[in-house]
Amino acid sequence: MPVSSIAQQVQSLREDAQKALESANSLEELNVFSTKFIGKKSPIQAIFKELKNFSAEEKKELGPLINTLRDEVQLSFETKKEQMTQAELNEKLKQDWIDVTKEYPTKQGSQHPISRIQKIVEDVFTSMGFMIADGPELETEWNNFDALNIPPTHPARDMQDTFFVSTGEVDTNKNSVLRTHTSNLQIRSLKEHGAPLRVIAPGRVFRNEALDATHDAIFYQVEGVVVDKGISLAHLKGVIEVMLNKIFGKKIKMRIRPGYFPFVEPGLEIDIWWEYKDKKGETQGKWLEFMGAGMMHPNVLKNCGIDSTEYSGFAFGFGLTRLAMMKYGIEDIRLLFDQKKEFLEQF
Ligand code: PHE
Question: What's the whole-model pTM score?
Answer without folding.
Answer: 0.69
